[in-house]
Amino acid sequence: MRDILTVTLNPALDLASEAPRVIPNEKLRCDPAHTDPGGGGINVSRAIQLLGGSSRCFVALGGSTGQRIADLLGEAGLDLIQHKVPGETRTSLAVGDKTTGDQYRFMLPGPPWFPADVAAVEAGVLAAAEPGGLAVLSGSLPLGAPPALMADLAARLTGLGAEVIVDTSGPALHQLTRASEFAPKVLRMNHFEAQDCAGHPLNSLQESADFAAALAKSGAAQIVIVARGPEGSVLATPTERWHSRAANVPVRSKVGAGDSFVGGFTYALAQGLSLPECLTRGVAAGSAAVMTEGTLLCRPEDAERLIAHCPSTRL
After folding, report:
1. Which CATH superfamily is domain 4-314 in?
2. CA–CA separation, 68 vs 119, rounded Å?
């Protein structure tokens, strides 16, 4: 299997709990919190491990919260490459309302980065990457990091001979939708992010596939994936279009579904499976993730069972 390096520049200590009701202006008595190391790349590595694979986790960490995340990753048996940054790593909180089934997610900011921090982390990521391996850039950027950082890292990693998978949002994603000589292998986004980039609604699978194919043909990435929630995901290259529908499962929490998709897709790609198989395994892992509570990711037995329910078909 090919080497997999995940990169998390803006990690978080994820706390998840539930309360009988979530209402304003009152003290809410919550259940004991479940604590997990969080952030896009970390969750991708956790999902890969759950699915039977392995990866190396490059994580920018600071302060006592950062050390707590490092300890949790060590306890989980993940291969951590710890890059120390100034300040205190952020915390996130997800609280479920037992009465309505709704979930409320609060994302606290982390410390700001300065140009020296950006230069240091770029050097660290490039030193950790292996030519011929897969590099997953996933999650948000820290405060102060330039929006072009993800695109710059993707280009430099590609130039080193790595195949890059990017899953980000906001201005960083907009930067990546521009054609580049060293474009990433895979660019993934959800339905709302795709609409934001397109500048207009994408009301059907076909419209999402058209948008993804246009990005691939423009040179933004070799493969573009757009997730459409319960409709599953569409994948496009300049010459192919595929769709895998999400499995019909009970939804407990949507936290980590996208990261589980990326984990399942990346693990399948590292094993040399075809693009339709990679898409199916990604959607199956994402479907399995919504069945679990709080910040828990996909259960391997669910992900394996749901493969048969998420076949990829041509669009």
Report:
1. Ribokinase (3.40.1190.20)
2. 25
